[in-house]
Amino acid sequence: MSTLILATVSRFLTALLLLVSIFLLFRGHNAVGGGFSSGLVASAAWALYSLAFSPQALRRALHLRPYTIITLGFAFALLSGLLASVTGAAFFTSRWIDLPLPSGQSFAIGTPILFEIGIHLVIVGSLTGIFLRLEGID
Amino acid sequence: MTGSASFLLEIVLAIFGAALLAPFLARRAPRAVSWVFAGLLAAATFWFAVQSGAIAQGERLTSTIKWLPAAKVSLTLQLDGLGLLFALMICGTGSLVALYSGPYFGEHEPHLPRYYGYLLLFTASMLGVVTAGDLISLYIFWELTTIASFFLIGFEHGKESARKAALQALFVTTLGGLSLLAGIVLLGQAAGSFGISDIIAGADAVRTHAHYDAILILIAAGAVAKSAQFPLHFWLPGAMAAPTPVSAYLHSATMVKAGLYLVARFHPALGGSALWFWLFTCAGALTLLAGALGAVRQNDLKRILAYMTVAALGALMMLLGIGTKEAIKAFTVYLLAHSLYKGALFMVVGIIDHETGTRDIRRLGGLSKRLKLTFAGAALASVSMIGLPPLVGFTGKELIYDALLRFQSHTPATVPSFFPPALIALTVVGLSVVVAAAAIAVVRPFLGTFADSAGGSLPTRGRAPHSSAAGEPSPSDPAPSMWIPPLILGATSIAAWLTLGGLGSHVLLPAASAIAGASLDLRFETLHFTTGALLLSAVSLAGGTGIYLLWNRLAARPARISAAGLYETTVNRVFAFARWQTSALQSGSLRWYLRVSLTASVLFVAYIAWMEPGWIRVNPAWEAPIPYDFFIGVLLIAGIAGSLVARETIVMVIALGAVGYSIALIYLVFGAPDLALTQFLVETLFVFLVTLIFTRLPVSQPVPSRIHARIPDVIIAAAVGTTMTLVSWATTSAEFPRHLSEYFAETAPLEAHGRNLVNTILADFRALDTLGEIGVIAASAVGIMILIRFRNTPGGAP
Fold first, then answer.
1. 3-class SS shares of chain B: helix, strand, coil, % to 5
2. What is the chain A residue with the closest CA to B791?
3. Are the C-beta atoms of A51 and A1 separated by less than 8 Å?
4. Which residues pair with A106 in a beta bridge?
5. What are the counts of helices (DSSP H) followed by strands (DSSP E) for chain A?
6. Residue B325 burial (CB < 10 Å; 0-12/13-18/19+)?
7. Counting beta carbons within 10 angstroms of the beta carbon of residue B172, is it exposed (0 to 12), middle (13 to 18) or buried (19 or more)?
8. Mean pLDDT computed over every residue of chain B
9. CB B345 within 8 A of CB B249
10. Fewest beta carbons within 10 Å, which of B41, B67, B246, B265?
11. Main-chain dihedrals φ then ψ at residue B403, nearest 5 degrees
């Protein structure tokens, strides 16, 4: 199903969409976005890639098996909760640290972002896994 | 009673850790692994034995981990006299079984890694059961033993008999386990705490509580199932499909005693009432009878021993039911004696099986010439089982009779006077069969006159490599690690009898005191004679000899109604019903599922509307529509119309996508940007996925059907649409409580460092729910991926 126009444009578009998904992932806490939408955008990016090139190319681009991506995502999500119980609080208490920025403000980073990354990976892994399986690739 | 920190927790966790490491170790060093684990458990036995000094002084050792401090849930292990007695048995027999398993399976057994893993898992869980300090940990460890037993019984999972037996044991013991859970919950609520020492301290409140009867019956059901009491005793003979080391360990010395442990542990809290007495005494007595009657019909050595275990468990339960000081004393001694001799006998049977290839007593005889050292161990075990000095089985039996006679002479007023003599008569009969079975198990194979098994006309099936040669005719003593454990157990029986005074005051008395709930004043004597008990023993000895001589004739009679048969019929009926129901409701057609689900939902809402008509608002507040709304409406209707008239699947899917986009636009217009974003993305991916499905899977293209075939669907669709409209109108007209939104609006920027309320709720406040959601997504994705693999089956209509 690949045509020259689609192939040329997709190279650019896929990269852009993946960047957008990462952007959505990190801004989710304060504005529209979050793990679920970023995962879906990334899956859409990969879907476009497989349409433009081939499912085998998608598998190569992913590097990891979809099962592995799902497991990794779920592990990150669990880890973000366990980090809290390691420090003695209840499971899934969010932990934040303040990083000082050169401009004098401080930047707060915490366990929820790890959780969001986990969600993202689970969704990407699930959807690309289904795509690839439909095309007959493991 | 002071509690001191100890290595208790570390030991239990170490054995769990060993269970996890066992598969790797067994793969690397198959020959050494039995010694390693035997050594580990022997060290544990030694540690427990050393603790007996402190425990005898009245101390109780505890270890605690705070699991979830917010919910006040912690894992507490405690060791008192009762736990110590059981722990010694568990670790001691476990160590010997681990040693025995090595040559039994041989180092070429491919599944040996699994075996040791499960065996150690069981050992650790069983230790957890007897040291659990609170009800929840007790239950968790209890169910872990059930699971480990399931895997061990079904170890040779290629054989259907093993699979069926494992499943049967699982069903019966899990049924008991669920009942136990219900009883535990009620007990915890009645006592106000889930800690076992708290419950025992507040025993009076429990005994007079309104739920007492229910608690007792539920917990008793758990004990009855686990300890193979009548009528749930039939799984134990079936469990003989397990490898013999497993039978020696789980189904004679440890796991089946877990029910007895439970009853003994709760005796201070729940015992003393009439219900307790009747429940456990009758269950125990009936079990003793059932075991005795079942044994005389068997020709397989393992089955005979299994029924004898059932009988012994019945006798022990009966003693706990009676609950007098003497009965508890008899309980502790007989418990120990039984574990020692039954474990040894099972190991001997395993050796016989290993060397001669058969367990049928009709085909065995004269083995004492060949299996000399095995015979020594067997002789010791059987003499203990028959109940003769100088082995501790003698004292155990005497004490049982003693307790029954004392009970008869001091019968409480609530018990009818015919009951104690009936119990005595029953026990004499039961113990006579025990004598006979002991003789059958040892005298026949070893000293019997059937010469063939020693002469070698039977094939030697043993798993050790040396017996593979066709010219190897006669069985001989196996590797030392196989005949040494029975000898050790026999020697322990002798030693226990000789040192009964010291053993009694250090180990048995604390256990008995723990069962009674108060310090008992008991003395254990090696030379313990009472005329009445001796008389009864003589009677049962004579009876046993008679049964032994008549065994062949008794074994020929067929069995009538059996509890096992009842189980079979019930299970088959349940499965037949399930099959019928599944084929009726789950036809495989997606259209059918949709029709049923949607109709059911509409009917449900209609029912609610009929009950409370007030929530239907037919004229909600209208707002003036803006131009955007017209555009969205046009797109929506165009999409719907397109999907209805489309002739090709692709067009239909794209039209449905347009409908989805317009819904997303509605979300956007109404001020839910997160939702709109997700909806746009989901719709895009939906179109992509469905197109892929239709082009890649062998799905039949939808055929436009005649108009009148579509009428039911039209009606359902209209009904669903109307229902959803009414529901939407009702919800938007309702007054929503605002306090949740206010709470989140205030807390989110401060504590969650975020201004996107939806996202902070998903990822922070309610992260646990979201974890469950992505778990579901992951699981369904994996399921879909696996199912797509089977897409090559033709004719897969949706």
1. 75, 5, 20
2. A134
3. yes
4. A100
5. 5, 2
6. middle
7. buried
8. 83
9. no
10. B67
11. -65, -40
Nearest CA in chain A to B73: A90
Residue range A42-75, pLDDT digits in tens: 999 999 999 888 899 999 999 999 999 999 999 9
CB < 8 Å to A43, chain B = 685
**Predicted confidence (pLDDT) at residue B15 exceeds the cutoff of 90:** no
Residue B428 to residues B321, B336, B415, B435, Cα–Cα distance (Å): 18, 20, 20, 10
Separation CA B549–CA B545 (nearest Å): 6
Locate the chain A residue with the closest alpha carbon to B749.
Answer: A30
What is the spatial distance between Cα B689 and Cα B28, in angstroms, rounded to a whole number? Answer: 47
Instruction: State the smallest CA–CA distance between residue A34 and chain B in angstroms.
Output: 6
β A96-100/B60-68 pair status:
unpaired
- Contact between chains at B688 and A110 (C-beta distance less than 8 A): no
User: What band does B593 get if pLDDT is binned at 50, 70 and 90?
Assistant: confident
The DSSP bridge partners found for residue A108 are A98
Which H, E and C letters describe B578-641, residue by residue?
HHHHHHHHCCCCHHHHHHHHHHHHHHHHHHHHHHCHHHCCCCCCCCCCCHHHHHHHHHHHHHHH
Name the residue facing B756 among A31, A74, A92 (closest C-beta): A31
Above 70 in pLDDT, residue B464? no
- Report phi then psi at B74, rounded to 5: -140, 155
Check pLDDT > 50 for residue B461. Answer: no
Q: Is the model's pLDDT at B17 over the cut of 60?
A: yes
SS3 A99: strand
Its sign, for the CA torsion B395, B396, B402, B405, is negative
Cβ neighbours around B135 below 10 Å, total: 23
Element (H, E) at B60: strand B60-68
Residue B179: pLDDT over 90 = yes
Give the residue among A98, A76, A6 at the shortest CA–CA distance from B763.
A76
Written as six digits, the tokens of B87 are: 């722990």
Radius of gyration for chain A, computed over Cα atoms and rounded to the nearest angstrom: 17
Encode burial over B10-30: b for 16+ CB neighbours within 10 A, e otherwise. Answer: ebbbbbbebbeebbebbeeeb
Count of pairs with CB atoms under 8 A, one residue in A, one in B: 138
pTM of the model: 0.72
Give the pLDDT confidence of B35-81 residue by residue, as tens digits.
Answer: 888 898 999 899 888 888 877 777 777 777 766 655 556 778 888 88
Q: What is the ipTM for the molecules in this complex?
A: 0.92
Question: How buried is A102 (Cβ within 10 angstroms: 0-12 exposed, 13-18 middle, 19+ buried)?
Answer: exposed
Give the residue on B whose Cα is nearest the Cα of A41.
Answer: B681
Q: Is B67 helix (H, G, I), strand (E, B) or coil?
A: strand
Among candidates B644, B641, B631, B780, which has minimal Cα distance to B710?
B644
Residues of B in contact with A47 (CB under 8 A): 685, 688
User: In this complex, do A34 and B763 lie within 8 Å of one another by their Cβ atoms?
Assistant: yes
- Locate tokens 């089946």: which residue? B256
Give residue A118's pLDDT band: very low, low, confident or very high (50, 70, 90).
very high
Given a contact cutoff of 8 angstroms between Cβ atoms, the answer to whether B700 and B692 are in contact is: no
State which amino acid sits at residue B728: S
Report the SS3 class of residue A13: helix
Helical packing angle, B673-696 and A111-134, nearest 10°: 20
Say how many CA atoms lie within 13 Å of B303 toward its Cβ: 17
* Residues in a beta bridge with A96: A110
Is the pLDDT reported for residue B751 higher than 60?
A: yes
Amino acid identity of residue B86, one-letter, is F
CA separation for the pair B403, B408 (Å, rounded): 9
Q: How many Å apart are CA B433 and CA B431, to the nearest integer? A: 5
Q: What is the DSSP letter of B132?
A: B
